[in-house]
Amino acid sequence: MASTSDIRKGLCIRYNNDIFKIIEFMHVKPGKGPAFVRTKLRSVSTGKVLDNTFSAGHKIEDVRVETRSYQFLYPEGDTFHFMNTDDYNQITLQESLLDSPGLLKEGEIVKVLFNTEDSMPLSVEMPASVVLEVTYTEPGVKGNTATNATKPAKVETGAEVNVPLFINEGDKIKVETEKGTYMERVKE
């Protein structure tokens, strides 16, 4: 059993007869009244996001998890195929277990969290950022860069990312996987 002081991003807990992963949390100490922790939880079975508030000192049941490295092989409908980098066993996971499936490139190494009690996969942790090639974007207009203007760009995985006007087709960009936002242009 853990308490609210142990809450951190990525922690898996058992709540309302389901397993949830904490995706956001904030400790709040109001001027009047007891402290509490405001959390955003994602169900690992359904992918639903739930807002919940725990009072300070509340006991929560954490789930012991094990992390293993897997390589993304290919998507097939709403299932994704992964291969264990240690023993080459393959698994298929539902799209709901992935935080940002649109940014997952074939060959990418991810961390898969498993419940140690029944060895069921709980969620997939993407790397902090990925490098993707821009496959389509409108050309930028010269001299239109005085403001922080952006334009949509389609990347090699099919996802759309807003990029600065100076990005062209064929450029490689670094994308933050958590928010799906442009970070920087990558030079070869």
TrEMBL record:
Domain called Elongation factor P C-terminal: residue spans: 130-185
GO molecular-function term, one example from the UniProt record: translation elongation factor activity
Compartments, as annotated in UniProt: Cytoplasm
InterPro entries: Elong-fact-P_C (IPR015365), NA-bd_OB-fold (IPR012340), Rib_uL2_dom2 (IPR014722), Transl_elong_fac_P/YeiP (IPR020599), Transl_elong_KOW-like (IPR013185), Transl_elong_P/YeiP_cen (IPR001059), Transl_elong_P/YeiP_CS (IPR013852), Transl_elongation_fac_P (IPR011768)
One Pfam family matching this protein: EFP_N
SMART domains: EFP, Elong-fact-P_C
Residue stretches making up the Translation elongation factor P/YeiP central domain: 67-122
Cross-referenced CDD domains: S1_EF-P_repeat_1, S1_EF-P_repeat_2
Gene3D superfamilies for this protein: 2.30.30.30, Nucleic acid-binding proteins (2.40.50.140)
Family: Belongs to the elongation factor P family.
Function noted in UniProt: Involved in peptide bond synthesis. Stimulates efficient translation and peptide-bond synthesis on native or reconstituted 70S ribosomes in vitro. Probably functions indirectly by altering the affinity of the ribosome for aminoacyl-tRNA, thus increasing their reactivity as acceptors for peptidyl transferase.
Matching NCBIfam families: efp, PRK00529.1
Name of the protein described by the UniProt record: Elongation factor P
Originating organism: Zobellia barbeyronii
